[in-house]
């Protein structure tokens, strides 16, 4: 049933009548098809933060999506985390080129609970867990020093579970605005915005 809906959107483009009123559900619909097209990269998203009025972007991976927002995991001492502490407003961008689709999401970042970070950390491969201890993300370093630190932490935790470092965890972006972009013939692309308002999501078309 959902596939039919997607076919309709792909062939006929986006229209107010075939958009799902809840943007999270519309995101999930498109994400599902992006995963089918490119399972390895579908969850890669550009995260833009702001420092001293200057934007800064990098790719992070979407790890969880729930009713409140979009979660990624990172180093809480990294450049991005310092920027987030200074300015909680941020933007996410997904681009699925095979599907000719882009989704922009803007909102506010919050840290996820320690329990949620612990649970996710446990699921990571051991070498990623060691990496979280060994890499002082965004700081000046040398390859030699990084490898030395990996060896040190590998020895420290040998034969034990690797605990989550306090400086590593998740952020959740709680959206206030979504934009769904569907490529169309003749550059007359479809763009729909969902703006969060007191009464719910206000949906409207904007020009390409
Ligand atoms: C495909 C891809 C996925 C990435 N996923 C993450 C991620 O989930 N979390 C993370 O902290 N960095 C991730 N990175 C690295 C970031 O792009 C970035 O280099 C790092 O987070 C440091 O950014 P910062 O110095 O602005 O804090 C990823 C990079 C790529 C290319």
Structure description:
The protein has about 210 residues and is α+β, with helices and mostly antiparallel strands. The protein has one domain: Roll (Pnp Oxidase, Chain A), CATH 2.30.110.10. Helices cover about 30% and strands about 35% of the residues. It has six helices and nine strands; from the N terminus they run ααββββαββαααβββ. It has helices at about 1-10, 25-35, 80-85, 115-125, 125-135, 145-155; strands spanning about 45-50, 55-60, 65, 70-75, 90-95, 100-110, 170-180, 190-195, 200-205. Strands 1, 2, 3, 4, 5, 6, 7, 8 and 9 form a nine-stranded antiparallel β-sheet that branches. A hairpin with a 4-residue loop joins β5 and β6 (about 100-110). α5 (about 125-135) crosses α6 (about 145-155). The longest helix is centred in the first third of the chain and has 15 residues, at about 25-35. It is elongated, with a radius of gyration of 20 Å. The two termini are about 30 Å apart. The mean pLDDT is about 95. The structure holds flavin mononucleotide (FMN). Flavin mononucleotide binds near residues 75, 80 and 138.
Summarize the helices and strands and which ones pair or pack:
Layout: H1 2-12, H2 23-37, E1 44-51, E2 54-61, E3 64-65, E4 70-75, H3 79-86, E5 89-96, E6 101-111, H4 114-123, H5 126-134, H6 143-156, E7 168-182, E8 190-197, E9 200-206
Antiparallel strand pairs: 1-2, 1-5, 3-4, 4-7, 5-6, 6-7, 7-8, 8-9
Helix pairs in contact: 5-6
Bound molecules: flavin mononucleotide.
């Amino acid at each position: 049933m959902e596939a039919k809906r997607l076919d309709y959107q792909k062939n006929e483009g986006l229209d107010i009548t075939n958009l799902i009123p809840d943007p999270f559900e519309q995101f999930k619909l498109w994400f599902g098809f992006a995963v089918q097209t490119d399972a390895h990269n579908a969850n890669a998203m550009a995260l833009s933060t702001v420092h001293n009025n200057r934007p800064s972007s990098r790719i992070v991976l979407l790890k969880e999506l729930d009713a409140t927002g979009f979660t990624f995991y990172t180093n809480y001492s990294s450049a991005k985390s310092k920027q987030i502490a200074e300015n909680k407003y941020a933007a996410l961008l997904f681009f699925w080129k095979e599907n000719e689709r882009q989704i922009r999401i803007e909102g506010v970042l919050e840290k996820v609970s320690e329990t949620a970070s612990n649970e996710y950390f446990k699921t990571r491969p051991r070498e990623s867990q060691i990496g979280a201890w060994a890499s002082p993300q965004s700081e000046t370093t040398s390859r030699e020093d990084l490898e030395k630190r990996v060896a040190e932490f590998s020895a420290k935790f040998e034969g034990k579970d690797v605990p989550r470092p306090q400086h590593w965890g998740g952020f959740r972006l709680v959206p206030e605005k979504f934009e769904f972009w569907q490529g169309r013939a003749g550059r007359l692309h479809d763009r729909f915005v969902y703006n969060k308002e007191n009464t719910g999501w206000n949906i409207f078309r904007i020009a390409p």
